[in-house]
Every structure is written in C-alpha cells, then in structure tokens.
Specification:
Elements lengths: L1 H12 L1 H21 L2 H20 L12
Helix pairs in contact: 1-2, 2-3
Length: 69
C-alpha cells in the first residue's frame, strides 16, 4: 500500500513520469484497438460521454467530494 501511495505522489509531481504514463496509456489503447476495432472509437466515446455528463451536471461542491486517502 505504501508503495502505491509513493508511486501516485511521484506521478502527480514529476512531469516526465506523467507524460510517460499518458504515452503508455495511448500505446495500450492502440494495441487493444488493433485487436478489436470497436475499442478504437468505443473508449474515446465513453470518455467523452463521461466528460460531457460531468460538465452538464456541474462541478461538485467541496462538501460532496469524499477523499478516501
């Protein structure tokens, strides 16, 4: 558990690690899309739908935000 927390702090603070994580996520997405073409558009459309739903719903109040860490 402590390793995961320290790794999460490293990702939040170091720009190079964050960009590497984004690049790795993109590479994994392309690899999955190569195997199944529905994922090529399905995952970005799902992410876009979640983003739009959050924008329509509005920002959460700080009282509603539950921080479990």
């Amino acid at each position: 558990m402590n390793f995961a927390v320290s790794l999460w702090h490293l990702v939040q603070q170091d720009r190079l690690i964050r960009l590497g994580a984004y690049g790795s996520a993109g590479l994994v997405w392309f690899a999955l899309a190569w195997a199944d073409s529905r994922l090529l558009l399905g995952l970005p459309l799902l992410a876009l739908g979640i983003w739009v739903a959050r924008r329509v719903r509005g920002e959460q109040d700080e009282d509603d935000n539950v921080d479990l860490w």
